[in-house]
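Late entry, evening session. Most of the bench is empty. Finally got around to the prediction I had been postponing all week. Sequence below, unchanged from the version circulated by S.P.
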Amino acid sequence: MDCTKRLEESKIQNPKSKILIAPSILSADFTKLKDEIQAVEAAGADWIHVDVMDGHFVPNITMGPFIVEALNRLTNLPLDCHLMIQNPEKYVDRFVKSGADWVSVHPEAEGDIHGALETVAKLGAKPALALKPATPVSAANAFAQQIQMLLVMTVNPGFSGQKIMLECLPKYAEARKAFGPEMLLQIDGGVTGENAAQVRAAGAQNIVAATAIFKSPDYAAAIKALRGA
């Protein structure tokens, strides 16, 4: 499906009006990826989250643009790519051209972060910034005019299945005060049905979940628990 058309269909007029659930395929069964994507889509997922790791910025290696290209053929849901990589300016174009609708990069990474965000926007996707748990919200100030979403991580990036760092939750109120009502706030790291109410109350609007969904026997029930009433 055409990237621009999908973006228009998924346009968020008021980000605060709905909790969006983005299953991370990091915990999906890749031997049946098509079935997994169709299952979470049927279960009520809003986006599909793709965790990209290069073995340098984080101590793990995962997937690249070829997976995004495959996902683009499998679903009409927005594809949300979180690039945990060094020098993202060298690669963002490949992800957008493969079908990424949202692309998050890290200010802690080496390279031209402003340039990476500019390229994402120029190619028609939505640029976003991701912050490690130890990185203050103020680190996003220099990029505020370029981004449409801020991802505040609640685990150290690299591996799924980690326990949420609840001490990061106050950063959402700080981010809302700093960047206003139109900035979409995303959370990634250790969100489960048990702590989802705290996450939503803190101000996170877009919830990324890997093991909480893909390791659950009932994807629809897991997504419902994350989204809340």
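Two things to note before I forget:
The two ends are 31 Å apart (CA to CA).
Strands lie at 20-23, 48-53, 79-84, 102-105, 126-131, 149-153, 184-188, 206-209.
Will write this up properly tomorrow.
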